[in-house]
UniProtKB/TrEMBL annotation:
CDD domains (alphabetical): CAD1 (cd05283)
Organism taxonomic ancestry: Bacteria, Bacillati, Actinomycetota, Actinomycetes, Kitasatosporales
InterPro entries: ADH-like_C, ADH-like_N, ADH_Zn_CS, CAD-like, ER, GroES-like_sf, NAD(P)-bd_dom_sf
Name recorded for this polypeptide: alcohol dehydrogenase (NADP(+))
Assigned EC number: 1.1.1.2
Family (UniProt): Belongs to the zinc-containing alcohol dehydrogenase family.
Organism of provenance: Streptomyces cinnamoneus (Streptoverticillium cinnamoneum)
Length: 351
């Protein structure tokens, strides 16, 4: 890192291929840490943002990446949580207002303050500068928004835990997945495979609901007790009234009423994927058996650390395919074709 300028891969314009560039990183403030990024996961959100698929507001050029794992290189004079050499991670946000009810409750992802949740990339920080993410060699973050990565988790396989891992852990913890609970995970991709591992480790009975049986062997290996193809309409009759909790990880337009029919009385269907079109739910699919349709987004700092510690205790990490930085554009196309098992991770030494 020279003169606060670091190498990175950025999308120069909407839908343009990512290319190597250099970006500035801020000087270390009193409570900042400089992280030598070792690995950065590729999340579907990165692709949506780089291709301006979530509407206007892209601050191009954009350096994506919010699944960051690395090592502390330097610390500011007021830092107490970390020291050089510590293994750390950064997830989907790098700041929040710190004062609203949600921030005070450790739910920074739902910050309602004026600053709001400051995304790790394509957001405006409290210094007025646009944030740039983890497809780079270094990043500077406030120590209060970094996470400690347990020694037992390899850094490359830890990176996707900072988004995919917490996105599944948070609803599983909130709706108390555990022994005696039946949990279904819709989709066995980058998110879904983490849901299977985590729900299994929590002691729940886990079912994967996927379009086909193509990944059945993987699903069972990862901890699923059952695996069904939703392309068979009979499955919705066979499994009616079965589950306490269903986690929908896919970003496609599904027949939500059909999935609500799989819930027990009082059960909850949680939406995690973000499809482009509005979702439709019949009121009677909810009213008839006191069912709930809910949403969940990542997790706060405290819960994300709890997730990492849980993964460390249970030997859980993401299933990854390690790539070079010059393979990012190819990896994006493969993500869109569902041709990855189950998360691409960039070796940032190749930037």
């Amino acid at each position: 890192m020279t003169h606060n300028t670091v190498a990175a891969y950025a999308a120069p314009a909407p839908k343009a291929p990512l290319e190597r560039t250099e970006i500035p990183r801020r000087e270390l403030g009193a409570h900042d840490i400089l992280i030598d990024i070792k690995f950065a996961g590729i999340c579907h959100s990165d692709i949506h943002t780089a291709r301006a698929e979530w509407g206007e507001g892209g601050h191009f050029p954009i350096v994506p990446g919010h699944e960051i794992a690395g090592v502390v290189a330097e610390v500011g004079p007021g830092v107490t949580r970390y020291a050089p050499g510590d293994r750390v991670g950064v997830g989907c946000f790098v700041d929040s207002c710190r004062e609203c009810d949600n921030c005070r409750a450790g739910l920074q992802q739902y910050c309602t303050g004026e600053l709001g949740m400051v995304g790790t990339y394509n957001a405006t920080g409290r210094d007025g500068q646009v944030t740039q993410g983890g497809y780079s060699t270094h990043i500077v973050v406030d120590e209060n928004y970094a996470l400690r990565v347990p020694d037992g988790i390899p850094l490359d396989a830890a990176a996707p835990l900072l988004c995919a891992g917490i996105t599944l852990y948070s609803p599983l913890a909130h709706w108390q997945a555990g022994p005696g609970k039946k949990v279904a995970v819709v989709g066995l991709g980058g998110l879904g495979h983490m849901g299977v591992k985590l729900a299994h480790a929590m002691g729940a009975e886990v079912t994967v609901l996927s379009q086909s049986l193509r990944k059945k062997d993987d699903g069972l290996r990862l901890g699923a007790d059952h695996y069904h193809a939703t392309s068979d309409p009979a499955i919705f009759e066979e499994l009616a009234g079965t589950f306490d909790l269903i986690l929908n990880t896919v970003s496609a337009d599904l027949d939500l009423d059909a999935y609500l029919g799989l819930l027990r009385t009082g059960g909850t269907l949680v939406q995690l994927g973000a499809p482009e079109n509005p979702l439709s739910v019949s009121p009677f699919a909810l009213i008839a058996a006191r069912k709930s349709f809910a949403g969940s987004m990542i997790g706060g700092i405290r819960e994300t650390q709890e997730m990492l510690d849980f993964c460390g205790e249970h030997g859980i990490a993401s299933e990854i395919e390690l790539i070079r930085a010059d393979q990012i554009n190819e990896a994006y196309e493969r993500v869109l074709a569902s041709d990855v098992r189950y998360r691409f991770v960039i070796d940032t030494a190749t930037i």
